[in-house]
């Protein structure tokens, strides 16, 4: 009998996705081995015993996954999320949102914090492994939105999910930025370009100039900030991104609202908090010696700064303050990616210092 | 940290002090309900991380395929910590009585 026919082979594959190698070696493999032998010896045979053993391993997976998450959470610099959360809350005060809007925006904020917890506590290797797959999925959804989404003033940026209108570009842009910057740092310039241009095309079709501009600026900052390419290559890649963003901006009908607020002190406070949002990723980028962390920090700092600037120029609604729920989620996930990379430091630097990943990471 | 053994850790060290090497399920079987299948491996993993037990894979290749089993045994540190805890508990009981 081969290993594939034995109980546990599928569970081991699942464990590889959820847990660190150390936890698999120390906890899951011994359990699977013992249960396999028990079954062979005829002590634990039968359908019910197999079901019980499967549930047992699943329970262990959940237990270890939660333990690893809490371990990573205790090492994460959650303060990086504070300006974004504060800006969202200030927005509710600043623009005197209606009660139903407040509840909805708070629900989005809660969802954003939950997703950012998962993103920030994910092992960096996992994020790197799944980044392209997630971004490819995101690009498909962006194209889907352009064709099947809801239109306002010729811009087709929203997908109706039940009673909610979700702006897919703001929600999924972090995934594209993560994958493009990772591929650029890895030296896979062609793949980065294909992925980036595909996303830009979808955004052009959606007529979403500001998101397109944010992606372009993020890519260009990574190209020059981390020196992933030099000479004509660097200028070539940057030109493609800049040109596509230019086209998207020209097609953008500019849907931004400019609500007038009577409370000047509150508006100043909101502006200051909003300006702090891209600061933490920038700080991470400048103080890290690891290229991947620098790239992620630069990329998200640039993208968020672009969104803030675009709203100040009247190209879109103010980021987080009045922008809808999907922006809150997208912004928090962006910051969470930076936190995940910042916490874990360079791959392979396990024993080299404070920035290295913990002992459970292999 | 090392001196505060949990109930399960103490049970495992107790069993490993009687028999030199045991598999995870053997520990569960011999613990008379003190150890559960769902938590014994996580506890053993944690104890290995602390250096209270060490492990090795069984030498013989499994005849019917599958993963090799892992055998656990007490380390010198585990032995010292367990006996110290036992001494403290005994002393405490003596004082109380």
Describe this protein with a few key phrases.
heterodimer, A: 362 residues, mainly alpha, three-stranded antiparallel β-sheet, 14 helices, 71% helix, 4% strand, disordered N terminus, B: 97 residues, two-stranded antiparallel sheet, 4 helices, 2 strands, 56% helix, 10% strand, elongated
Tell me the fraction of residues in β-strands of chain A, as a range. under 5%
Order of strands across the main sheet of chain A: 1-2-3
Series of secondary-structure elements of chain A, N-terminal to C-terminal:
HHHHHHEEEHHHHHHHH
Q: Note the gap between the termini of chain B.
A: 28 Å
From N to C, what is the helix and strand string of chain B? Answer: HHHEEH
Average pLDDT rating of chain B? 86
Label the structural class of chain A: mainly alpha
Tell me the major beta sheet of chain B: 2 strands, antiparallel
Rg of chain B, rounded, reads 15 Å
State the total count of DSSP E strands of chain A. 3
Beta-strand proportion of chain B:
5-15%
Give me the side-by-side strand order of the main sheet of chain B: 1-2
Helix content of chain B: 55-70%
Main sheet summary of chain A:
3 strands, antiparallel
Principal-axis shape of chain A equals globular
- Terminal CA distance of chain A reads 31 Å
Number of contiguous helices of chain A: 14
Task: Please give the number of β-strands of chain B.
Answer: 2
Parts with pLDDT < 50 across at least 5 consecutive residues of chain A = 1-5, 347-362
Taking Cα atoms only, what radius of gyration of chain A do you get, to the nearest Å?
Answer: 23 Å
Task: Explain what this protein looks like in three dimensions.
The complex is a heterodimer of chains A (362) and B (97). Chain A is mainly alpha-helical and 362 residues long. Helix content of chain A is 71%, strand content 4%. Chain A has 14 helices and three strands. Chain A has a three-stranded antiparallel sheet with strand order 1-2-3. In chain A, helix 6 runs parallel beside helix 8, helix 8 (189-206) packs antiparallel against helix 9 (209-225) and helix 13 runs antiparallel to helix 14. Chain B starts with 6 loop residues before the first helix and ends with a helix. The mean pLDDT of chain B is 86. Chain B is mostly helical. Chains A and B meet through helix 2 and helix 3 of A and helix 3 of B.
